[in-house]
What we know:
alpha/beta; N-(1-d-carboxylethyl)-l-norvaline Dehydrogenase, domain 2; 2 domains; three-stranded mixed beta sheet; 13 strands; Mannitol_DH
Amino acid sequence: MDNLISLSNATLDQLTVKHPGYDRSALTPGIVHIGVGNFHRAHQAWYLHRLMQDAKAQDWAIIGAGVRPYDAVMREKLLAQDCLTTLIELDPARTSAEVIGSMIDYLPIEEGHAPLIRAMADPAIRIVAMTVTESGYYIDPVSKGFDANHPDIQHDATHPDTPCTAFGAMVAALRQRREAGHGPFTGLSCDNLQGNGAILRQTVISLARLSDPELADWIEEKATFPNSMVDCIAPATGPGELALSRDFGIRDAAPVTHEAFRQWVIEDSFCAGRPDWDQVGATFSDDVHAYETMKIRILNGGHQVLANVGEILAIGTIAECMAHPLIAALFRKVQTEEIAQTVAPVPGMTPMSYVDLIEERFSNPRIVDTTRRVAFDGSARHTGFVLPVLRDQLAAQRSVEGLALVEALWARMCAGPREDGTRIEPNDPFWPELCEVAQMTRTRPIAWLEQNRLYGELHRAQPFADAFDAWLRLIWKDGCLAALEAYTRKA
């Protein structure tokens, strides 16, 4: 289409959709955000944009950053359009678009991260936020302790001025701030981790202690790492999403589609100040943990209930999984009888009301959220989202039949191929290891649970181990649908 408007500061007034009404040239940075993916732009960047539209938070603009070579592709796309993003809301009843402008720059991605360290050392930066995925915090999946032996961590401990990780860059910047007489920034995790702020704190301070114990003490005393719960489904961008932006007359190399729902609950612990995000819908709370538990177990855990069986059966999206009667019945039964049993209510929402809400959100056919994306990094997502529920159910001597089936389906997915014979592409940092063990389960299912890195001592929990063994043997013998039918028919 020749009449498309290419996103830039110069073309904003030509747009027919909502767009920044503030003077972007007058914005000054206050936040560095590491990991500028779709979720960040649909969520945290949007809340800040809303404040800026109200002529507030003009000194809190975002500088984007990345620490992996592939982040350079996103940097190039966003800088070419002045870091503007088209957000496309896909409500089942309508589609709307808005261009947001709260991000004003994207740092160069270099080995040793000198530009990132320099930016975070600037006292004007008061918050360093991140979305680096659940598995990116160098934590042991069983003990939840800091993984000091990881090669990346060992590198950063011995080369603190030229680190390879985001956390090493944070430590280096905090060292420079301390030496210059400046205070620390707030570290704000926006990843789906229970106690994400506490985990970020653990990683940063533990890494600092390996090379500079006095700095670690200073960070521990002065810096803050608030816990937060974040929620908005923002699928990956592909040809369909690019076409949607063109439908609004916009040429955007990196548009973001998202659902109408957003939620952000944050612990109000910011050592260097913060934007008033609560004025545009965020919630500051002293009990983030309750919100986190509800969301991580019912939504994120629910994603794992769906995605693995969806992959095995070659069902492409989460919405299509919810449209499948047996998969939808699996979801409802596991949520009702097991997951929701471990969740407490929060103000305005009971666990079962939240299950109903998640069913509605997951069923939105306009959100093209692929089973492959949701199934990615199962070794982190199952240990973080599903196994804590399972342990609580075992401790309370309640049913784990459904969760055992969910884990059996994950094992079957890792064995591949799909039931239609197509290949499941590698989809986990530990994929070769997982596939090797999954093949063993054809004759010895318990081999899967003996992966101590994932399950710890859970293979010794007889109610779980017995149910897992039975489900996986049935799956290998008669297929996934037979297992789903047997489970959903159980009283």
